[in-house]
Amino acid sequence: MISKLLIANRGEIACRIIRTAREMGIATVAVYSDADAKALHVRSADEAVHIGPSPAAESYLVGEKIIAAARQTGAEAIHPGYGFLSENAGFAQSVIDAGLIWVGPKPSSIDAMGLKDAAKRLMRDAGVPVTPGYEGEDQSASRLKQEADAIGYPVLIKAVAGGGGKGMRKVDNAEDFEASLESCRREAKASFSNDEVLLEKWITSPRHIEVQVFGDSHGNVVHLFERDCSLQRRHQKVIEEAPAPGMDEATREEICAAAVRAAKAVDYEGAGTIEFIADASEGLRADRIFFMEMNTRLQVEHPVTEEITGVDLVEWQLRVASGEPIPLKQDDLFIDGHSIEARLYAEDPAGGFLPSTGRLDHFDLGVEGRIETGVEEGDMISPFYDPMVAKLVVWGETRAEAIDQLAEIAENVEIWPVKTNAAFIANCLRDEDFEDANLDTGFIEAKIDTLVSADEADNDIWQTAADFIALAETEEHEDLPIGLRLNAPGVLNATLTHKGETRTVRAARSHVDSLATGFVDPERAVVFADGQSFVFERQSRGSGAAAAGDGAILAPMPGKVIAVDVAEGDAVTAGQRLMVLEAMKMEHALTAPFDGTVTELSASEGGQVQVEAVLAVVEPKEE
User: Fold this and answer.
1) Could you say which cofactors this protein requires (predicted)?
2) Buried (b) or exposed (e) across 131-163, using 16+ Cβ within 10 A?
3) What's the rounded mean pLDDT across residues 596-613?
4) What angle do CA 377, 380, 382 make, to 5 degrees?
């Protein structure tokens, strides 16, 4: 058995491998870039070696540095995880040539499956069903156009060296083919240094079905059943589950047997995944499920297979790499229950899914389910790497039970100030079509407007923020009489600003009647609800604080008064707009904190004001 293992990766997969290695009594070595010097995988390993600057091309993708780190620390083996160099046959061979153990398939197997066109030909010869298409050597635009016309539109252009959704174009009609081909080739050349493409018939109701396979050096190959990875955004998986909903035993047996034939065709060792595209227009049928590609590594979504089989795939990888046979026979493997995984990304769905980076000042994923992460509170989400924060994994006796568990976990995610797709995940899971397993790879795109939650706080969230402040201030001053604590018997009026809007909200004194959670500090109140964070900047309780508690309307920031809606002596109602302040190119409506009378008005239209200036005073209506 391997005694010391170097993990040539970072983040959650490095932490995942370290966990199993430690359970097996194997010492671990982490590698890290400048950006990851204080990362969780570095803190978790027994040793760590710095391998270069933050960009992956200068650190995690430099095989020579990783092999040197293994030699320096006396590591016997290298586990590549997924991504980075995990499917690089040249690196795998370099590891072996250095006298180290490569925890993965043979370089020849990686090579055989590395180019999609060659892999399809190999699979066809092995009796594995492949999607109708063209993967010929003639790459002229005219020949490709001719083949596309023969296949019939819509057709899919795919880079032969592609991956991660890059180098793919759907073409709906013949007129668009040449422009799409040029665009696809340009992206493929930039991403993979190879602009060759293949063509496939576009499946109109596609589901992404994949089969986990495992081989050893003794000639054994088994499958660990299938996963459904149909929920994708821009070809990137978001939610994965096992087993595939709607898969009957006869179809499962046929597709899994095809996956085993595929693995045997390349003399496969270790963990791998055979990916299929299914035409699900009439349900899952074996004669409508076609080979797409093989991933010659551990998959991101491997935990759902582990959850339904009880197998630790990383342990199997380490045992097989050490020369042992696969621990279980095919007949010993069976499906137990249902598992679903969601990828929690640091991104802003309401902002076009742009990545969100920064320090995790507040980070709480709860204690339910299986959480795979590479970060803790206080860690940084770096702009240099994949924005995945964690994988949220659950197991249930039924699919419905697993859906409920995972949706609840997503809805209770508490992360700030980095934004995440937690609410988006919950919305996907709660969607009626998802619950009914009406799935295909276009699910998210078709429903995107209903799946992305608005990031505007509703009235209940505003109220909750004010209540949190009232509760916090009560707890801060428990030794004072209520009237002195709040400047009014049992009442606090919290002035808050959220996304440019300012309100003064009458808050509860000693309780918070809300299912939301959050925290309060001197500058802000943060409310967590339904997988989102809502940030409210607090009015300072400095020089004008006492007056603010009694109904003073203070400027939340420097700006220009562009509208005044009231005059001294006017009766106003709670929430009524009093004036509008323009600041930072945004308009901020200032409203009445309660029913009352405007007794002072110092603001005038067109006037410039400084932060915390008293603009008006509202006296509460006598009871």
Assistant:
1) biotin
2) bebbbeeeeeeeebbebbeebebebbbbbbbbb
3) 87
4) 150
Q: Which helix (H) or strand (E) holds 338?
A: strand 338-345
Alpha-carbon dihedral of residues 215, 216, 220, 222, nearest 10 degrees? -30
Closest CA to 67 of 14, 16, 8: 8
What would the pLDDT profile of 300-314 be if each residue is shown by its tens digit? 999 999 999 999 999
Alpha-carbon distance 412 to 366, whole Å?
A: 7
> Which H, E and C letters describe 237-290, residue by residue?
EEEEEECCCCCCHHHHHHHHHHHHHHHHHCCCCEEEEEEEEEECECECCHHHEE
The residue-averaged pLDDT of 26-36 equals 97
Assess contact for 207 and 276: CB atoms under 8 A. no
Helix (H) or strand (E) holding 209: strand 206-215
pTM here is 0.79
- CA-CA-CA-CA dihedral for 140, 143, 147, 148, to nearest 10: 60
Q: Any idea which residues carry the catalytic annotation? A: 297
- 581 CB-near residues (< 8 Å, 6+ apart): 502, 555, 556, 557, 559, 560, 561, 562, 587, 588, 590, 609, 615
**What's the one-letter identity of residue 130?**
V
Residue 533: its H or E element: strand 532-538
User: What number of other Cβ atoms are within 10 A of residue 346's Cβ?
Assistant: 23
Between these two residues, 508 and 571, which has the higher pLDDT value? Answer: 571
- CA 483 remoteness from chain centre: 47
**Poorest-confidence range of 16-20, 411-415, 478-482?**
478-482
Distance between alpha carbon 327 and the CA centroid of its chain, in Å? 32
Per DSSP, the three-state class of 387 is coil
Instruction: For residues 291 and 210, give the distance between their C-alpha atoms in angstroms, rounded to a whole number.
Output: 9
Indicate the burial class of 193 (C-beta count within 10 angstroms; 0-12, 13-18, 19 or more): exposed
The full DSSP string for 485-510 is HHSSTT-EEEEEEETTEEEEEEE-SS
Which amino acid makes up residue 115? L
SS3 311: coil
CA distance from start to end of the chain: 80
Six token digits for residue 189 = 């050349």
- Written as six digits, the tokens of 582 are 């323009």
Tens of pLDDT, residues 419-441 = 999 999 999 999 999 999 999 99
Which residue from 294, 292, 295 is spatially nearest to 200, judged by alpha carbons? 292
Contact between 196 and 161 (Cβ < 8 Å): yes
- Distance CA(513)–CA(156), nearest Å, equals 53
Say if CB 451 and CB 428 are below 8 A apart.
Answer: yes
pLDDT tens by residue, 194-225 = 899 999 888 888 999 999 999 999 999 999 99
Q: What is the DSSP string of 438-458?
A: ---TTHHHHHHHHHSPP-S--
- The answer on pLDDT for 58 being more than 70 is yes
Instruction: Collect all residues with Cβ–Cβ distance below 8 Å to 566 and sequence separation of at least 6.
Output: 572, 576, 578, 579, 598, 601, 616
